[in-house]
Design brief:
- The protein contains 13 helices and five strands.
- It has a five-stranded mixed sheet with strand order 1-2-3-4-5.
- The longest helix is centred in the N-terminal third of the chain and has 24 residues, at 68-91.
- It starts with 12 loop residues before the first helix and ends with a helix.
- By secondary structure, the protein is an alpha+beta fold.
- Helices cover 44% and strands 12% of the residues.
- Helix 3 (35-56) packs across helix 4.
- It has three domains: 13-205, Lambda Exonuclease, Chain A (Alpha-Beta Complex); 216-278, no CATH class; 301-346, no CATH class.
- The radius of gyration is 27 Å and the shape is globular.
- It binds iron/sulfur cluster.
- Iron/sulfur cluster is lined by residues 15, 19, 22, 25, 210-212, 215-216, 219, 221-222, 225, 227-228.
- It comes from Veillonella dispar ATCC 17748.
Length: 380
């Protein structure tokens, strides 16, 4: 059975706290299930089963169905949880660990609830730990609204049982070797909860201005959101709606700053329009579906190869050379340890191709040949 989602879910809170109408707008679109999300669900199920085995004495899960990479990654998260549970038990004999805890934060957010991967509560410290299986970008626990809402929910259910003073929130992203923790006093958390209450109420009612932000790319309304379209297109149409003849350096930089948003937006609009056209739901004015170019394929490669060999063609002429899988795929089979043990001697990491990034990027700037030549000329 599909999990029921709150309209104002914790995982989308960073979005609806900035763009309050987004939650109601998103509700008009069907759920999107990416392969990454499905993989994350499997990893969470495995993490839950291993933790229940280790902490509650339940039957150990069968690991045959999981990749080495997933088992290794989940075990790194499990180790961190176990360590934190042991610390809490050492501190307080009545410490409790809750796995996949339903957390109700509706005191602050209308009908708000979610699931905390791991909640550890003991006198003094309430701890919420979240597993993020993705390896796209590291997610920080610092000022993370999802973690704060989970912490509010965990506090709500435990406030009369434990004397909580400090709240600790940790995100474990094992495939990026990233563990990030934020800590605040209970008072600070409750103050934050009061601050967001009116914003959550506006989001519940679908009120406020649509406000494009970093989270638009995950919003289900993004393909037809007017505010996002205006933001992307405004980058090109400045000065009273007229294009300049030539862009200034500043305008080129402005466009670069919008590169990710605009490219994802355009691709998203195309994919959305394509799916609707394909399903027959829409006929877009000025557009039609046509048959694309296709490649010829061999339906029975074994029979085709036999025919060619029987007719005197050489193996080396008709077969592709065998090729070793890439490191990412090999790591799925061998795990990180296996790659380090067997392949380290054969792996090199060449210098990356220069990439134009914002100044805020943490990597040091590299000098181009031209700037080095200019510097050299200045020196002589
Ligand atoms: S796409 Fe962006 S601006 Fe539009 S509703 Fe979603 S979050 Fe708000």
């Amino acid at each position: 059975m599909a999990k029921k989602h709150a309209l104002l879910g914790a995982s989308s809170s960073a979005r609806w706290l900035v763009c309050t109408p987004s939650a109601r707008l998103e509700a008009m679109f069907p759920d999107e299930q990416s392969p990454y999300a499905a993989e994350g669900t499997v990893a969470h199920d495995l993490a839950e089963a291993i933790l229940r085995h280790k902490l509650e004495g339940k039957k150990a899960p069968k690991l045959d169905d999981y990749s080495t990479e997933m088992i290794e990654a989940v075990n790194r998260y499990v180790d961190i949880c176990e360590e934190k549970v042991n610390e809490a038990r050492a501190r307080s004999s009545d410490a409790e660990a809750m796995i996949e805890a339903r957390l109700d934060f509706s005191r602050w957010v209308p009908e708000g609830f979610g699931t905390g991967d791991m909640v550890i509560v003991a006198d003094g410290i309430l701890e919420v730990i979240d597993l993020k299986y993705g390896k796209g970008v590291p997610v920080s626990a610092v000022e993370n609204t999802q973690m704060r809402l989970y912490a509010l929910g965990a506090y709500d259910v435990n406030e009369f049982l434990y004397d909580i003073k400090t709240v600790r929130m940790t995100i474990v992203q094992p495939r990026l070797d990233s563990v990030s923790t934020d800590e605040m006093s209970l008072e600070e958390l409750l103050d934050w909860g009061e601050d967001i209450k009116p914003i959550a109420q506006r989001a519940w009612e679908g009120e406020g201005e649509c406000t494009p932000c970093d989270y638009c790319n995950f919003c289900k309304a993004r393909h037809t959101c007017r505010a996002l379209a205006d933001t992307c297109l405004d980058t090109f149409y400045k000065n009273g709606g007229k294009l300049n003849q030539l862009l200034t350096d500043r305008e080129v930089s402005d466009i670069l700053a919008m590169k990710d948003l605009i490219t994802k937006w355009i691709k998203g609009v195309y994919d959305f329009a394509y799916e609707k056209a394909l399903s027959g739901e829409k006929q877009w004015p000025g557009y039609k579906l046509v048959e694309g170019t296709s490649r010829r394929t061999i339906t029975d490669p074994d029979a085709a190869a036999k025919t060619l060999l029987d007719n005197g063609y050489k193996e080396e002429d008709i077969f592709k050379p065998r090729e070793l899988e890439g490191i990412t795929n090999l790591q799925k089979v061998l795990g990180k340890k296996g790659v380090a043990e067997y392949l380290e001697a054969y792996i090199e990491k060449p210098e990356g191709k220069p990439t134009l990034v914002p100044e805020s990027d943490k990597r040091p700037a590299i000098n181009t040949v031209e700037t080095m030549m200019n510097e050299f000329e200045d020196e002589v």
